[in-house]
Amino acid sequence: MDRIHEMKKELRKALLEKRKSLSPAYREHAGLLIQQHVLSSLLYRNADSVFVYVSLPEEPSTALILRQALQDGKKVYLPKCSGREMLAVRIRDLDCLVPGAYGIPEPSEAGETVSAKDLDLIIVPCVAASKDGKRLGHGAGYYDRFLAGGSGKTVCLCFRELLEAQIPVEDTDVPMFLVVTEETGMPF
To answer: What pLDDT does 20 receive?
Structure first.
């Protein structure tokens, strides 16, 4: 295993522990602010198509973004894992979700799909990130492989408490256009 990969693995382990220690009240409040930043941004308002993940309890919530995007009539796409590939599958409501890879809710059917380059806004999860757009994911590489073919505007949602000055990166790691925390908001 190469040095950078090992550094990422150790940092991920430490930051997942730190994330577990964040209070539910902090996660809820910060998650709401992060979602409000996204929804009030020009990037969101001008997007016809939005790709967004279904958040897990310890991540910044995406529930409000999902509901609002559907209500606003945007084309909403969710990740669906198939082998080592992640597909962007269009949904029209949240009733179609079933537990998928890693227990994360995903569309039950692989209906209409698009590539990353065809999406206007891509909202990405992380374990941690740096202000300059480096992202530490969960280590499976699904998002980096999905985003490698080019993408629209990638926005990583990260609690301020999990911002790091430096994130080690490999050649396959795709940088984010923006990292949004409860404090930083979105400039566009």
So the answer is: 96
Q: What is the DSSP string of 10-79?
A: HHHHHHHHHHHHS-HHHHHHHHHHHHHHHHTSHHHHT-SEEE-PPPPTTSPP-HHHHHHHHHTT-EEEEE
Instruction: Specify the CATH number for the domain of residue 99.
Output: 3.40.50.10420
State the pLDDT at residue 76: 98
Angle (deg, nearest 10), helices 63-71 and 24-39: 30
- Would you say the pTM of this structure is higher than 0.90? yes
In a domain, 135, yes or no: yes
- Report pLDDT for 187: 75
Low-confidence ranges of the chain (pLDDT < 70): 1, 151-152
Domain of 31, in residue numbers: 3-180
Burial class of residue 108 in the structure, from the number of CB atoms within 10 Å of its CB (0-12 exposed, 13-18 middle, 19+ buried): middle
pLDDT at 1: 53
Q: Is 27 a domain residue?
A: yes
* β-strand pairing of 153-157 with 178-180: parallel
The pLDDT assigned to 111 comes to 84
Q: Is 39 exposed, middle or buried (0-12, 13-18, 19+ CB in 10 A)?
A: middle
pLDDT at site 152 = 64
H or E stretch at 85: strand 85-91
Q: Judge contact between 145 and 82, C-beta under 8 A.
A: no
